[in-house]
């Protein structure tokens, strides 16, 4: 009888390489966003203030810009198009610019603490999602519905209510929702690899990296808002 061990080892090696490629892309996206945010806050703070003084409608329009990139990026990744990676990089840069509108209000200590906490949660939920035997797809549907609820709540609070309790509620819910999505996406990575018998192209890697990157950024912002409120009391 043929020893199945080499086949299993090869599969695990291929899966690990797929995870490594995805997490490499996530790291690149986070690094690009961090650099763009730093440059914007460091060298163009008055421009940020001027835009924010233009009113909530102006900020609202700017915050919609990433949506014009993320959907084409996901479509390009699904088609394994060569434009997928440039769109991913562009989205990371644009989101870094958008993040600067929030980060400018926080201290470096707040941002560092929020990043470390978010990174720890990201790692923990990634491990859970990869190794749990529980099917997380049902939970993911509820989490995705929750994302739309958070978007609506966030825009209403920004445009009309300006309520700190509402912001805190959204942040707590954001931590729960995006932590759940991080776990689900990690489980989904292995499912995709298995369904395609290890024949996963760069489009799959970019698509999953984009999903994880977005979840991490939103988890980070949720944690940062809570830290900011606690430290200002």
Brief account:
The protein is mainly α and 233 residues long. It is built from 9 helices and no strands. The N and C termini lie far apart (69 Å).
Radius of gyration: 19 Å
Largest sheet: none
Give the strand tally.
0
Counting DSSP H or I runs of 4 or more residues, the number of helices is 9
Average of pLDDT: 92
Question: What are the segments in which pLDDT stays under 50 over at least 5 consecutive residues?
Answer: none
Structural class: mainly alpha
Could you state the order of secondary-structure elements as H and E? HHHHHHHHH
- Bin the helical content: over 70%
Percentage of residues in strands: under 5%
The shape, in one word, is globular
For the terminal residues, how far apart are their CA atoms? 69 Å
